[in-house]
Design brief:
Chain A is mainly alpha-helical and about 270 residues long. Chain A contains eleven helices and three strands, in the order H-H-H-E-E-E-H-H-H-H-H-H-H-H. The radius of gyration of chain A is 23 Å and the shape is elongated. The N terminus of chain A is likely disordered. Chain B has one domain. The chains are: A mainly alpha (about 270), B mainly alpha (about 160). Chains A and B meet through helix 1, helix 3, helix 4, helix 6 and helix 9 of A and helix 1, helix 4, helix 5, helix 6 and helix 7 of B.
């Protein structure tokens, strides 16, 4: 049966090299922008299938992609994925492209152009993201029961820390260190703000301001991978979430402890 | 008061999602998911004041609506789940654990266990909801086969039709 299908697909399928290149490009875009590994595998197999290579295999971990074809040359390619950011719009777009290809609404020849277009999709404007960070902290402070003055302080801290974080990102500071320094800055600013009389409750302000750094996406993706039975990727995602939480705790804790010692507290 | 809290949860969820470059067309649905989850948490807490059970029920509700939305809007599930769940993350519990750890004479054990329980409730809520069979969320749509042109192949190779 398998051979029969392969013969049927002969001449219809895309050149193996090109098909693998496109699939790895799609996989790379997804993996480096916050997809779960099982989804990357699923999409890659679907893509290869609609490019005329049924029976292909894809294996994805959090840091690398492997794909191989069922053809006479036994083609296989590997891609190492180093950077990881969160741009879920790209993810949605690749998903859409894969669906369109499978349903024949997009021709395989157009796929490369579209993928490159998705890859260079710009993020939200920086000003909007900064404002969103402030608003986010404001509303979280409200939810957690802070007074309106705490909310105002959280808003200001949210904006300041987002700007600081984007500077760190540009300098390629590693995730752990950048989370740690951002958390330290948050609690330092909260202590300063309360000293200046803007806010009242230090805990509410700090909790609200660290929410944008909460490792929500790593945790959800980790759980999803574990549900799908991919314990390697799921476990490493959960470790990532744990490390982020640890970095935040150390950053906040260090500054509060320093303040305790300096002001002669406990 | 509850209305204002829910409205704030909506704003918090939408602005949090902006930080992760969510597709613009989905922002309102994500906001509604988050607001619904927080409303459910508050209502549950006012009847049965048990934080862990409330977190569990709200997480299941958020995850269910995320799955339905993912099907309906043809988007990856992460898009909805990430924002929807954020109001339920026990930020206060983590902070209190950390605070108890650094201040002497205070036991961090109880707050740590409490936070771990809440995190566990969220994880189990997500796992349970995501383990439900995908056919339940397809509203009579045929689960999409891998390739419509190759009916014979499906008999040989069984792929699952996980879509979201």
């Amino acid at each position: 049966m398998q051979i029969k299908i392969n013969e049927k697909m002969k001449g219809k399928g895309m050149d193996s090299n090109k098909a693998l290149y496109l699939t790895l490009l799609a996989g790379e875009i997804m993996l480096s922008n916050g997809a779960e590994t099982y989804r990357v595998e699923d999409t890659m197999i679907r893509l290869l299938d609609s490019l005329g290579h049924p029976g292909a295999e894809a294996f994805v971990t959090t840091t690398g992609i492997f794909a191989s074809l069922e053809d006479s040359n036994a083609s296989c390619k590997i891609k190492r994925v180093k950077t990881r950011t969160y741009h879920l719009e790209k993810l949605a777009k690749v998903n859409e492209l894969s669906r369109n290809l499978a349903e024949g609404r997009t021709r395989p020849e157009e796929a490369q152009e579209q993928l490159l277009k998705i890859k260079s999709l710009p993020p939200y404007p920086p000003a909007l993201r900064t404002a969103a960070s402030g608003v986010c902290c404001f509303s979280f402070c409200w939810i957690f029961g802070g007074s309106w003055r705490d909310c105002l302080l959280s808003f200001l801290i949210g904006i300041a820390v987002h700007l600081f974080h984007s500077v760190l990102e540009k300098r390629n500071i590693s995730g752990f260190l950048s989370n740690l320094t951002c958390a330290a800055l948050i609690s330092a600013l909260a202590i300063a703000g309360i000293g200046l009389g803007i806010g009242i409750n230090m805990d509410k302000t700090i909790i609200a301001a660290i929410m944008p750094f909460a490792p929500g996406i790593a945790m959800t993706n980790g759980v999803r991978d574990i549900v799908e039975g991919d314990f390697i990727s799921g476990g490493s995602r959960m470790t990532e979430a744990l490390m982020t939480a640890l970095a935040i705790a150390v950053g906040v804790g260090f500054v509060i402890r320093m303040q305790m010692i300096l002001t002669g507290g406990i | 008061m509850m209305f204002l809290q829910t409205a704030m949860a909506f704003i918090a969820t939408v602005s949090f999602s902006c930080l992760f470059n969510i597709p613009r067309s989905e922002l309102i649905y994500i906001g509604l998911t988050g607001a619904m989850g927080w409303l459910c948490y508050q209502i549950f807490m006012s009847f049965f004041p048990s934080g862990i059970a409330a977190e569990f029920v709200s997480t299941v509700l958020v995850a269910l609506s995320s799955r339905i939305l993912a099907r309906w809007r043809k988007m990856p599930l992460t898009v909805f789940l990430l924002g929807g769940i954020i109001c339920l993350v026990p930020g206060a519990g983590m902070y209190n654990t950390m605070y108890a750890l650094i201040s002497q004479g205070q036991s961090a054990f109880e707050t740590a266990v409490e936070t771990a329980k809440i995190l566990g409730a969220i994880c189990i809520g997500i796992i349970l909801t995501l383990s439900l069979p995908p056919e339940w969320f397809s509203y009579g749509q045929k689960p999409k086969s891998l390739s419509s042109s190759q009916k014979e192949k499906e008999k040989e190779l069984v792929y699952d039709s996980v879509e979201n």
